[in-house]
Amino acid sequence: MGAAATGASAHTQYGTPTPLDRVIPAPASVDPGGAPYRITPGTQIRIEGPREARRVGEYLAELLRPATGYRLPVTDRGRGGIRLRLDDGPHGAEGYRLDSRRSGVTITAREPAGLFHGVQTLRQLLPPAVERDSVQRGPWLVAGGTIEDTPRYGWRGAMLDVSRHFLTVDEVRRYIDQLALYKINKLHLHLSDDQGWRIAVDSWPRLAAYGGSTEVGGGPGGHYTKAEYTELVRYAASRHLEVVPEIDMPGHTNAALASYAELNCDGVAPPLYTGTEVGFSSLCVGKEITYDFVDDVVREIAALTPGRWIHIGGDEAHSTSHEDYVTFMERVQPIVAEYGKTVIGWHQLTGAAPAEGALAQYWGLDSTSPAEKAQVAEAARNGTGLILSPADRIYLDMKYDKDTPLGLSWAGYVEVRQSYDWDPGAYLPGVPGSAVRGVEAPLWTETIENSEHIDYMAFPRLPGTAELGWSPASTHDWDDYRTRLAAQGPRWEALGIGYHRSPQVPWPTAGG
Ligand code: TNX
What pLDDT is stored for residue 6 in this prediction? Predict the structure, then answer.
């Protein structure tokens, strides 16, 4: 009861600025004090830095203009106001410092990404009404003091399965904007699976044209043209997210096998598939054309990918023998390297020989066998980096509880505390801390069809993954977290995000 009252009042009391430590992810260090800064009709956004810094300033102005109704010009002249500054200080590739006092707010970073993350902090320090798209009553106060902030992990990901149900460019852009608010920096797109191939490949045009023509439940599916995909990559980059494309192989390939008979060992194309079983399809490991196919696909995807990574799947290859799986991975990983990219695979890749520099994405459960965990740990000790996506913790497609209208439950129910309350650094026994590169929250879409569904499954769990990835372990505290999370509810309402009102979180009462 007491917690509910605190959670609500911090944000909603008229004229009381949000305390500096009330944001998600929790900042690394906070030193509150001094008079607040007030954004007024005369506020300017001042840029000290190159064009990328100016872009962050324009982004901030676009965020603030609708609700404040102020002009908020972006300029490189004058003093005071909101200042975005690049310098060669100690903030690393993504960190920043935010300094707030009566005369102005200054965000300082070494890289534009740090300025961008600092802007997300500033945004959360303003009242939730700032997210609305029509003019709202202020005052627009930012509490006084200093935040020094830098992420725990460089990999803070979210995965979207656009294969089981196709999601439009607009739907993906909406998710990107939501991810940016919590400093997520990787968008992993699961672009192919049994139910659909979602990216145009010029050298194998039937993959998208035919293999992308349906989805779970038999709907029309869809795919991204290269121009659309490039727009997604660009949009993500404008929010400082890197797109990590996944082509899942050798299993999860029915859409490809249905599109080209010659990819099948028996030369017969299976029908398109619109169900939700897994593990029944496999590329033909013994046929040379399989590697021509992989080479063409990887080459074309690599050409669309400014980032370093290509995800080759490798999970649930239940219709591929172990020997074939190892052979396949031995042939395919060098192809990724040949096109200048580095391999990521689901953690089953550790059952083969992960390439130099490869990352394995762990999606097991607490109850996964000790032998399987030990195999992953051994690979980690031998230099394979890990991304942690434990299914019974951060799979966003798991139901919250038995009444959740969407989602699956094979990994159990995953309520908010379950998804937040664990430590990635100490999660898998025998894994050196340095092998853990970060966390990623996957959203599989067997039951998810649109943005409304995404909103409901991602909120309020996604911010927990973001905090595990960003905040130092020393800030980890469920009671404090759930109070901060509660204060995000009105912000989601202002953004039109329909979230799950978890009974574990002391949400402010309406209008409170
Ligand atoms: C397991 S996680 C899968 C996916 C399913 C998901 C549903 C993983 C690497 N494979 O094929 O969509 O469970 O939760």
Answer: 39
* Residue with tokens 């005052």, as numbered in its chain: 139
In a domain, 71, yes or no: yes
The CATH number for 352's domain is 3.20.20.80
Give yes or no: residues 117 and 160 share one domain: no
Q: Specify the ligand 1 atom closest to the Cα of 164.
A: 12
Ligand 1 center to 273 CA (angstroms): 16
The SS3 of residue 449 is: coil
**Same domain for 261 and 134:** no
Q: How many domains are there within the chain? A: 2
| Best mutation site among 278, 363, 410 for ligand 1 pocket (most ligand atoms within 8 Å of CB) | 278
Do residues 24 and 125 both lie within one domain?
Answer: yes
Packing angle of the helix pair 169-181, 226-238 (nearest 10 deg): 20
266 shares a domain with 190: yes
- Based on the domain organization, do 40 and 188 belong to the same domain? no
Q: Which residues are identified as catalytic? A: 316
| Helices 478-486 and 462-470, axial angle in degrees (round to 10) | 130
pTM of the model: 0.96
CA of 307 to the centre of ligand 1 (A): 24
395 CA: nearest ligand 1 atom: 14
- In angstroms, the CA 147 to CA 36 distance is 14
Q: Mind listing the pLDDT tens digit for each residue in 478-495?
A: 999 999 999 999 999 999
Cβ-count burial 100-118 (b if 16+ within 10 Å, e if not): bbeebbbbbbbbbbbbbbb
Containing structural domain, residue 88: 1-151+471-512
Residue 266's region, left for phi above 0, alpha for psi from -120 to 50, else beta, is alpha
User: Which ligand 1 atom is nearest residue 361's CA?
Assistant: 9
How much distance in Å is there from the Cα of 26 to the middle of ligand 1? 30
Ligand 1: lining residues by beta carbon, under 6 Å? 278, 315-316, 346, 363, 395, 397, 408, 444, 446
Q: Per-residue confidence at 132, pLDDT binned at 50, 70, 90? A: very high
